[in-house]
Amino acid sequence: MIKIKDIVLIAFFASILFLQEQLLTFLPNIQLTVFLIVLYSKVFKLWKTLVIVLIHTILDNIFMSSFSIYYFPFMLLGWSLIPIIINVFFKKVENPIVLALVGLSCSFIYSWMFVIPQVIITKVDLIAYLVADLFFELILALTSFITILWLYKPCSKLLNKLESNKPE
Fold first, then answer.
1. What are the C-alpha distances in Å from 23 to residues 9, 26, 62?
2. 6-31: average pLDDT
């Protein structure tokens, strides 16, 4: 049975994920999304993080008016791969450098998920799309790497304390 505390935490952290991305939309591909999903994946159980990702993806698609069969599944899969990869292959890893490299890699994987709908919808040449998107992929990857490297340890400590409900 799901606890009220879990519902509140999921809603709260999904809100943070959604809001930070919307507040940073004026900066192309500069966001804390990968960092936050990596952080949530390490602190919360896999199912909680996947629910947070689902809520975030639904809200983002509704808010940005991009809710379509062409984009939504690819965005959901792209973001969902992060907690899956973290919880399957890097469950015991706490090293910020390793997690930053994972975040960097997941940024590219997330970006590449959109190649499929873009090529189908716009019928753009695959190589042309990849070349045009490379700069934005690099921005997302570097932002993810730096934020995980700098913010993972202090935020992880804070969230672990909140999740365990233990006083300092």
1. 21, 8, 16
2. 93
Give the CA distances from residue 157 to residues 83, 91, 112, 136, 163, in Å, rounded to whole numbers and listed in that order: 18, 16, 32, 31, 10
Cβ-contact 90, 99 below 8 angstroms: yes
- The tokens describing 125, both together, are 């040449």
Closest CA to 39 of 89, 78, 80, 94: 94
Q: Counting beta carbons within 10 angstroms of the beta carbon of residue 13, is it exposed (0 to 12), middle (13 to 18) or buried (19 or more)?
A: buried
The pLDDT tens digits for 45-64 are 899 999 999 999 999 999 98
pTM here? 0.92
